């Protein structure tokens, strides 16, 4: 059975919305988009590269997949993250997306996330990784399908915005399997489900 690993960029108050750009995710009138890049540094890049070096496929929710396909799918910059993202098989979970042809190596999983991803997880193949896709992560967490988390905990609070565990989440215990603190104060914590 495949395992599912989620990598989430999060503030101290649990916000995961609008990390990269001011216009990335303004749902609900979110005014703080672009809060993350000022915390990027070499240590964070090295730690993220370790995850990218592991073989496996990727899993996305519709919104994140659409955003990534626009930003990364058209990039030709030679960045190793661009190369990895474009080469990986990308499963996009959606009830509304018509097709996944906008980004090469993408496969549409139609239907409810818990059911379609549970079926994918049970099939033979490489492990699955999620970057972002907070709604998908919440749904899969509630269904007990996420095995590991890498949380990049940023040293700021925003006071508003979508949080990683908005709404009900089942009691789940995790074991800290590793952590690194970057020079800019981001704690990169890795957790495995017990």
TrEMBL record:
SUPFAM superfamilies: Dihydrofolate reductase-like. It comes from the Bacteria. One of its GO terms (molecular function) is 5-amino-6-(5-phosphoribosylamino)uracil reductase activity. It holds the Pfam family RibD_C. InterPro entries: DHFR-like_dom_sf, RibDG_C. GO terms for biological process: riboflavin biosynthetic process. Residues 4-187 form the Bacterial bifunctional deaminase-reductase C-terminal domain. This is Dihydrofolate reductase family protein.
